[in-house]
Amino acid sequence: MPRKSTSSSYRALPLYEDDSNDTDDIMSAVRSQQEMLHKQDESLDVLGNSAARLGQISLEISEELQVQNKMLDDMGNELDDADINLEIVTRKTQELIQKSGGCKYFSIIVVLCLVVVILFFLIVYT
Fold first, then answer.
1. Which of 72, 100, 111, 126 has minimal CB crowding within 10 Å?
2. Contact criterion met (CB below 8 Å) for 106 and 97
3. Hey, is 8 helix, strand or coil?
4. Euclidean distance between the first and final Cα of the chain, in Å?
5. How many structural domains compose the chain?
6. 103, 97 contact by CB (below 8 A)
7. Tens digit of pLDDT for each residue in 81-123?
8. Membrane topology for this entry (predicted)?
9. How many CB atoms lie within 10 A of CB 77?
């Protein structure tokens, strides 16, 4: 059997039906990924700025705490000094009471002061 010439009747089929649609889809996907990367970069910039601000605030808080700790230490030292002075005054008062005759004379002085106050109110309100 003789063979017929097939050169003009057949045409090669492309591997993909529509190459232009695939190229558009790939370009769209690339653009989408670039947009996502851009948004992520913006989000990372915002996060970085927030972290830097948080670091600055923490440094300011640390400095403020150091100042307040120094103030508390100074106040503690002053309270210790006042406590020592109060103990000295209390001890001297106790010595004075004992030298003046003990609680007996002290009680008499307190009672006389009360009598004076009562007499003053009686004079004023009568």
1. 126
2. yes
3. coil
4. 157
5. 1
6. yes
7. 999 999 999 999 888 777 777 677 778 888 999 999 999 999 9
8. Single-pass membrane protein
9. 10
